[in-house]
Structure prediction request, 241 residues.
Amino acid sequence: MQKLVLFLLLTCSLCAHSQDTIYLGEFGSGIVKNKSQATKYRIVTPDPSEKDVYEERTFYMNDTLSMYRSVYKYYKKKKQVRIQKSYYKSGKIHLLIPYHQGKNHGDFISYWESGKLKRKDLFKNGKFVEGTCWDEEGVEVPFYRFEINPVFPGGLEAMHKYVKDNFDVSKVPEGSIFTKVQVSFYIDTDGSVIDAKMRKTADPMTNYQAIKLVMDMPKWSPAMQDGNPVKVKRTLPIALK
Prediction:
């Protein structure tokens, strides 16, 4: 089964039920208050033809459409996306994704910017059934998953060994009440680890050691979406005891 996590899918909680305009910052930074800091903006409006259905449109700052979603019960906890369309910066369609009761259902279609088909994946009730991929000339190529997670060199066991070998537990202050820290970081499109920050902190020395551990990581195999490397966020928990 394929798990689809779309880099264009950003969710947020809203309190008004009329039109809302939301400004979005750079990847991973979420909502920003200052328009000058935004890279995209989103407008949510009720669908005049259907009760409890809202239309969500996300635009680049040059007013080119980036994403469209039709959402049932948008302001509820159990809201359901019914269809999603994503677009290239040129305005041409990139993805067409149908849903049924919140799950991928039907033909998940990706296009090259030229308009030619890039992939067609069939889903039924959230489960991947089959898929076909094409190159830019329209020639069928070996199938590859829409989303591929980043991989630490050598895999998960190698990452555990890296943490064990490079984090000195003896430097954690004696009597510390902290049992775990968490470091968030991004894996860039070339596999580099960047922007490490503490999510769950301890004492300054432990925090410094945790940040250094992450920033000194070797390059990962980057995450891929639709055959292209993408920047993703990850969190690393480190046990102190």
Residues 156-239 form a domain with the Fusion Protein Consisting Of Minor Coat Protein, Glycine Rich Linker, Tola, And A His Tag; Chain: A; Domain 2 fold (CATH 3.30.1150). The CA atoms of residues 176 and 203 lie 8 Å apart. The chain is about 10% helix and 40% strand.
